[in-house]
Design a protein that fits this description.
The chain is an alpha+beta fold. The chain has five helices and twelve strands. Strand 8 and strand 9 form a beta hairpin.
Length: about 260
């Protein structure tokens, strides 16, 4: 593990675009270094709970890859994906310009949608409580493909951080997160046997109501056109796309770098 402070600035280093690396505002990034044929290469990412982000875009910059030769970036990207899978991350998200280095993983396109000034709605969802906690844990276990014990630990983390709120209907849940003046619809899930009954619409109304009056805007990510159509009914608009790799589906064979 390394940070950007460990980079040898006296060497001729380049980023993904062949430019001198811009290290401004990178102190909160995590990183790894590898050696390729006697040369060093580095990959840095931002930790976001179950997700790691390697995003190089302007104000959204949340990661970078650095080497002395462009071809080494393929090796360090390969090692980073395996490292994050071993670290039990669920997803790694890359900006589009980095996609060429991870194309062998067939990343899916994730659309970011935003909504200004969320408003409140009448809805039938309930906040997490002692009465519905067991139902929440069963749904977590199903959605996140984990044991009940792991779901208990996840729920404890959500509660401990204080930024998350969980709401339930019979057969589904929504999780929101506060990020200063911005809200994130972290996850929405409806169990397959309950889909097609309008529960997703009900959970969206609940999620937006929980954020109304607290934030100036809300965002979410999706890779599903059907879900996007639902979100657009509430006024969400797509602003950009990124690439995601589901890490718990990666076979942990040794990476190619030596």
């Amino acid at each position: 593990m390394v940070t950007t402070y460990d980079l040898p600035l006296d060497e001729n280093l380049m980023d993904m675009n062949g430019l001198k690396p811009d290290l401004a505002n990178t102190h909160d990034m995590h990183g790894i270094s590898i050696e390729v044929d006697g040369r060093k290469a580095w990959a840095f990412y931002t930790d976001d709970g179950d997700t790691a982000r390697v995003v190089s875009e302007g104000e959204r910059r949340q990661g970078m890859m650095i080497a002395t030769r462009t071809e080494d970036l393929y090796e360090v990207a390969d090692c980073l994906v395996h490292f994050l899978a071993t670290a039990r991350k669920s997803w790694v998200v890359f900006s589009i310009d980095i996609g060429r280095f991870v194309r062998d993983y067939d990343p899916i396109t994730l659309m970011r949608l935003t909504l200004d000034a969320p408003k409140a709605y009448d809805h039938g969802a309930a906040p997490l409580s002692k009465e519905n906690k067991k139902a929440a844990l069963r749904l977590f276990s199903e959605y996140y493909d984990e044991s009940i014990l792991q779901s208990i630990m996840r729920l404890r983390r959500f509660r401990g951080e204080g930024k998350y709120q969980t709401y339930l209907v019979d057969g589904g849940f929504a999780i929101t997160r506060l990020e200063g003046d911005t809200g994130l619809i972290y996850d929405i899930y409806v169990t397959p046997s309950k889909q097609g009954q309008g529960l997703g619409f009900e959970l969206m109304k609940c999620a937006l109501t929980s954020l109304a009056g607290k934030v100036s805007s809300v965002y979410l990510h999706t890779s599903y056109p059907r879900a996007r159509r639902l979100y657009e009914k509430f006024g969400f608009k797509a602003v950009y796309s990124q690439l995601g790799i589901r890490l718990d589906e990666i076979a942990l064979t040794p990476p190619s770098a030596r």
